[in-house]
Amino acid sequence: MKTTAETKIYILGAGFAGQMLAQEIGRKKIFGAVAAFLDDDEKLKGAYVDGIPVLVPIETMLPLLRRSDRDEAIIAMPAAPQERLRSIYDALRQNGFNRIKILPAVSQIVDGEARLVQARRIDPLDLLGRTPVTIPLKKSLAYLRGKRVLITGAGGSIGAELARQLLSGGAERLYLFGHGENSIYNIDRELRILQSEGVGEKATVVPVIGDMKNRDYMFDILGKLRCDVIFHCAAYKHVPLMEENPIAAIGNNVFGTKNVLDAALETGVRRFVLLSTDKAVSPVSVYGVSKLLGEQLTLEAASAVHGGGASAGQKLRIRVPPHPCGGDEAAYMFVRFGNVLGSRGSVLPLFMTQLKTGGPLTVTHREMKRYFMTIPEASSLVLQTGGVGRNGESYLLDMGDPVRIYDIAEQIIRFSGFEPGRDVGIALTGLRKGERLDETLWLPEEEPEPTEYPRILRLKGAAAAGTDLSALLESLGPVCFRSKDAPELYRNRERLLEILAEAFPSFRER
After folding, report:
1. What is 8-122's CATH superfamily?
2. What is the largest CA-CA distance in the chain?
3. Catalytic residue among 8, 147, 258, 279
């Protein structure tokens, strides 16, 4: 519902971000009028900013406001810790505010340039988890200035957030690659709206619809796009769903990734960053196996960057004298991390849907734990890693401590104004195929070590596959794609699972 000129808007945070919002609201006039800033800085007590009063402190002043149901609060405190955001949200709700918006995290507010179009309705993502690390986004994206950047899976949760943040990187072109036309249409339209409202720089945004399983297509399109950098996010990710569709998981996540890697090497892509998952560590699911193979393929490609072994007959144009993209050489790497709060197919959207029908919220096991990070923080760290990472090395995002899914369910219920157990129940449904109670982020031999960048770790012992990747893929190929030599293997699910079990002991033992 649109606000009217009668709507009073209260901006929480009188800093630079809040002031920019107030100025924009004043210019556009159609959203209402800013009635006051609320802030905790005692030095601002009694002050006015552009004629707007500053009320201090927040919790003391909120009960004194003369407000109506149509009034709106905008939290413009992008650097505030999660604990403070939770207390502010609680205070707003207790004082009758139902229309509450929030600016994105500091990682998306570049040089204080907040825009009204970035403010959105607050949701549980903004209040759950730890306080994100502050990353100087413009500085960390300097390696992309003037470059052509392609995001595979750009319509997904992480891919779309990478695209939003990349608007501030000064890239010459931003290619949004995906298989689903609706998701690519949505992020393309969103980026164009953001640009029209002054967010980021004027990169040329190009939507690209295609299927990475089509090898000829990938070589052709990357040859035409002339990318400098690829962030490879595209993958089938839903664990139980991939257990039911293992051939699709391997075909897309393994052979699709190999096609992207081979085409990237052939066409001279300077930097390649694969987004991986904790489920690739001693995998027990088809999805986990597919991502482990993606990691191994990426490390194998890294060895080919300097002539260490390409596919037969493949010419590696990457051997040309370096034109560095943030470093003195080309770099192919992977970044591994755990779950991201709010990604498509994750527990948070499921919980919110279940709440709409009155519950119960479904949790597989009371003691199931996962590592969690917000989508904006994970994306910022991936982008930073892409600039500082070295060829053939592997990286891990510091996820903090694991969190019980049951605890998240309780927090979601309370966020919505209900009491767990009394108003909305939580039902335990049992572990599903391919799931385990706990995930680990690394193998003992990988020995993660800190880097000079907060929350980015280096996996010292990560290495390419101990098995013969070429032989493994050769055996999987006829199962995923029809072969004249072995047509009887096409879509033979049992044979595919046998091959994976032979190659990966953890999968065999599950």
Report:
1. NAD(P)-binding Rossmann-like Domain (3.40.50.720)
2. 82
3. 279
Is there a common fold for 8-122 and 137-341+374-388?
A: yes
pTM of the model: 0.88
Q: Which amino acid is at 370?
A: R
Residue 411 near residue 124, CB atoms below 8 Å:
yes
Asked if 149 and 175 count as a contact pair (C-beta separation under 8 A), the reply is: yes
CATH number of 137-341+374-388: 3.40.50.720
Cα–Cα separations (whole angstroms), residue 415 to 159, 207, 341, 369, 406: 27, 36, 15, 20, 14
Domain layout of the chain by residue ranges: 8-122, 137-341+374-388, 469-508
356 touches 261 (CB < 8 A): no
Strands of 52-55's sheet in order across: 48-49, 52-55, 33-38, 8-12, 72-75, 100-102, 120-121
What does the block give as tokens for 32? Answer: 């209402």
Beta strand 339-341 pairing with 361-363: unpaired
Encode pLDDT of 452-495 as tens digits.
999 999 998 766 555 689 999 999 999 999 999 999 999 999 99
CB 407 within 8 A of CB 363: no
279 is catalytic: yes
